[in-house]
Amino acid sequence: MTSVTLTHAAALTRLGHALSEGARTRILLSLREGPARPTDLAERLGVSKQVVSNQLSCLRGCGLVVAAREGRSTWYRLADPRLNGALGDLLDLVVTVDPDCCSPEGCTCT
């Protein structure tokens, strides 16, 4: 087992931050299928290109996605192929959430 360092904790915090916003989570899950352009992601997710652009910027800052220019297009992909498996593992987890606790407006757990 790997010894946990502050760097590890910071990386998990960045992942948690990325997953804390619905559009970012949906972008990451969509990129599990393969690289995509912002326009494609906006269409797939039913959000504006501006929303996708803002969220991709955040995901790049968190080190979770990378961009590659191809001609006039920019393609985004997961920064590390292991993220695909990690996101899949998270999806496979069964978690019971008290519907009165953690709402989109914020956690009210005490």
TrEMBL record:
SMART domains tied to this protein: HTH_ARSR
Domain of life (superkingdom): Bacteria
UniProt-listed PROSITE patterns: HTH_ARSR_2
Stored Pfam families: HTH_5
Molecular function per GO: cadmium ion sensor activity; DNA binding; DNA-binding transcription factor activity; lead ion binding
InterPro entries registered for this protein in UniProt: ArsR-like_HTH, HTH_ArsR_DNA-bd_dom, HTH_Metal-responsive_Reg, WH-like_DNA-bd_sf, WH_DNA-bd_sf
Alphabetical GO biological process terms: response to cadmium ion; response to lead ion
CDD domains, per the entry: HTH_ARSR
Domain HTH arsR-type residues, every copy: 4-98
UniProt-listed NCBIfam families: HTH_metalloreg
The name this protein goes by in its record: Transcriptional regulator
Species, as recorded: Kocuria turfanensis
Lineage: Bacteria, Bacillati, Actinomycetota, Actinomycetes, Micrococcales
